[in-house]
Every structure is written in structure tokens, then in C-alpha cells.
Amino acid sequence: MSEGAEEVLVDTPCDGVRRVTLNRPAKLNAMTVGLVEGLHRTLASLATERDCRVVILTGAGRGFCAGLDLGGYGTIDGDEGRGRIQAGFAVQQQIADLIPRLRRLPQPVIAAVNGPAAGGGFALVLGSDVRLAATSARFNAAFVRIGLSACDIGTSWLLPRLVGAGRAHELMLTGRILDADEAARIGLVLEVVPDEALMDRAIEEAELIKRNSPMGVHMTKEVMWSALEIPGERAAIDLENRTQIMMSQTADHQEALRAFLERRPPAFEDR
User: Fold this and answer.
1) By the 8 A CB rule, do 126 and 178 touch?
2) DSSP code string of 158-169
3) Of 52, 135, 155, 264, which is least surrounded by CB within 10 A?
4) Does 76 share its domain with 152?
5) What is the model's pLDDT at position 4?
6) pLDDT band at 5 (very low <50, low <70, confident <90, very high)
7) Residues 204, 232 within the same domain
């Protein structure tokens, strides 16, 4: 079953998992106003679905996302009467806001990168929680190759935290293309699998996540992202302490303890 905007499709490959597919295969799923607005709506809807435990983000056809559609992005609501800078800034914000939306999503996002991920598509990969690559995957910070800054859509913040400042600077200054094997070697993606095995591997990873309680996974994601912004160890530990005490009061924690002692799988209720 598919739902949502035409340029973004959603289906359920297995219980508790939603697959979000960017659906402009003829254009390597390049970003238009329809695709970006559809992705915003889809993620906002998934955030409220209690039976959704993990989100897999991928692209239709032979690409993940080629970034901005240079043939024309389209017009966003309210553009009428705006100045050129104001209209351009509204588009910039609309696309860039996808990254904090991915972060705010209570469910982990697995990027199943099935081909080129450039520019804004590269940023979507960086903003996901787990990254898996098909052999055909390619990555680059494409903005600098078209006369713009490579510092765009969160890339300047996310990439150094994944691969280190030195590698990130080189990748962003050159805009060169990384193949899947190099991406795995430098820690950009978790692993590389054959193209035909990518979705099965993403579902396998989702199943591992689903073994844990919904609230436990949600709070782990939230605190991990927050800890990246905390300047000191003490503040990070303080946040962890408060979160852990809160989690210890949930019914799912007690169920996990009972299941461990009884040597059975836990039956979580998100309570």
C-alpha cells in the first residue's frame, strides 16, 4: 500500500517498519517543491504513528536523491510578491528544515542508499540515524561544484561528526565523489551490500532495533543527538542520568526485566 504525496511513497515492508521512497526515478529523485513538501508531510505523519517503530528512507529507481532539481524546483506557497532574496531564502529554509525534522522523529531512520546521493540527497543521508549503502551508492557534497558553498542543509555540522574534521574539509572543498567502499572505510556508512540485498539488510537492521522498547529507542536517539551538541562531558552525563531515571519508571522496563529472567522475548506496550 502506498500513501501520501505522489513524489513520496510510503509502504510497510514488515510489521512496525515504514519504508519512505523518494519517487522521481526519471530525475534520480531530485528535489522539487512537491517532493520536499511531501517528505515533510510524511515525516510529520509518521511521528504520530505508534505502530511505526523504524523508518527506512530510500529512493525509487537507480538513485537515492540527486539533490536539488536544477531544471526547476517549483514555487512554494506565499512566494507571490516576495523579493528574489526572500523567495530564495524561503526555499532554502524549506529544504534545510528536513534535517531537524529527521532528528525530531521519534523513530530511528535508516538510510538505504541505493545509488547517487548528492547535495541535498547527501544531507538526507547524513541526517539519518543509520546509513547502509548498496554497491552502486555514490556520495558528494555537490553544492561547491556549482559555484555555491558546500556548507548547506546541515552538512557542515553533520559530516565532521561522522568522518572527522580533516576528511570532511577535504570532501566539502573538493566536492569529489565517494564510492560506497570509501564511504564505509571512513565511517560514513555502516556497511556496503549488493544492490539486490540492500532492502533486506535494512529490514534486518530495523528488526534489531525493534527488539528494544519504543520509548527506550526514542530516548536513545534523542539523547545521542543532543549529546553531539553538548560541549562538556558533565552536561552529557547529567542528561543521561535524568533520562535513565525517567526510563526506569516505565512499564516496558519492568517487562524487559521479567522477560530477561523468564528467558522469553519481551512484549512491549509503549507504556
Assistant:
1) no
2) HHHHHH-HHHHH
3) 264
4) yes
5) 41
6) very low
7) no
